[in-house]
Design brief:
Length: about 290
């Protein structure tokens, strides 16, 4: 009996172990089905691996302008390298050309004294000094011009006109060698009349005894200048044109003459002089550096 009991106990133990081992092993068929489900269908491409978005490149660092830039050193570099531009420039310009002046107020008085009509077309020259700082133009300008002399029975009359202005403007540079600048100026216009006796030829001693063989009158008028300049910069300097119009808001009759007094010439104011404006256009050629 004891041997039979031991036999049945051993048989039950072996059966329980076999069942346990079979439950632990995976089902090969189900494993194959599961793996087949995960495979892509025939003819389909494998899914692309998801890629992380690329990190954006940081913006380039902006260089701050130098606050303590040496302008003198930059100016020296601009003399050697034409690509280097200095913000401050100095120019000396020489000009010559035509100016038309309205002399209607003076013409009537001269014709009443037997003089021919004084021409209104003046030709002359002058110059200016410019400073250009950050494209702002500051300029001192002067010009003098002459017209054909006129005569009467006793005198030659030579008229000289001129202007002096303080101009302000702004330059534009559509090309590195080209600049265009409008100008507005304030200043004075003057008219000088020189009278020389022509019918009498004095001796040297007679002239010393009475030097009043000639005389002059001058008039000064407040003036406004509106101009436009155009210049081209070349290897040898600058060349260009400047034109504009000169206004005289207030007619001037401040006529003076030089009166000798104890061998000293003094300014003497002349009363009842004609009022004149001298308004008119001008055009001139400009050269310089």
């Amino acid at each position: 009996m004891k041997q039979q009991s031991r036999f049945w106990a051993a048989l039950l133990l072996s059966l329980s172990c076999a069942v346990t081992v079979q439950a632990a092993e995976p089902d090969e068929a189900s494993a194959e089905i599961t793996a087949a489900d995960k495979l892509p269908p025939a003819g389909a491409s494998a899914p692309e691996a998801e890629t992380a978005p690329a990190a954006e490149a940081p913006p380039p660092a902006v260089e701050a302008p130098a606050d303590d830039e040496d302008l003198a050193e930059l100016w020296l570099e601009s003399l050697v390298d034409p690509d280097v531009r200095h913000p401050i420039h100095f120019h000396m310009l020489f000009s010559g050309g035509y100016q038309n002046s309205n002399l209607s107020g003076l013409q009537q008085v001269l014709s009443d004294r037997g003089y021919r009509n004084l021409g209104q077309d003046f030709w002359g020259g002058g110059g200016s000094v410019q400073m250009v700082a950050w494209n702002v133009v500051t300029e001192f300008e002067g010009m003098a011009s002459l017209t054909m002399p006129v005569i009467n029975d006793d005198y030659w009359l030579l008229a000289t006109a001129g202007n002096t202005f303080f101009n302000l403007g702004y330059q534009f540079e559509p090309h590195p060698n080209l600049r265009i600048y409008p100008l507005v100026g304030l200043g004075l216009s003057f008219m000088d009349l020189q009278f020389v006796r022509r019918s009498v030829m004095p001796t040297f001693g007679e002239f010393l005894d009475n030097p009043l063989w000639s005389g002059n009158m001058a008039n000064q008028i407040f003036a406004l200048n509106l101009g436009l300049g155009l210049e081209w910069q070349g290897w040898l300097g600058r060349v260009g044109l400047r034109g504009g119009y000169i206004f005289h808001p207030i007619a001037g009759n401040w006529w003076t003459t030089n009166a000798p007094d104890d061998n000293i010439n003094r300014q003497l104011l002349l009363a009842d002089g004609p009022s004149m404006r001298m308004d008119g256009p001008y055009l001139k050629l400009v050269i310089g550096f």
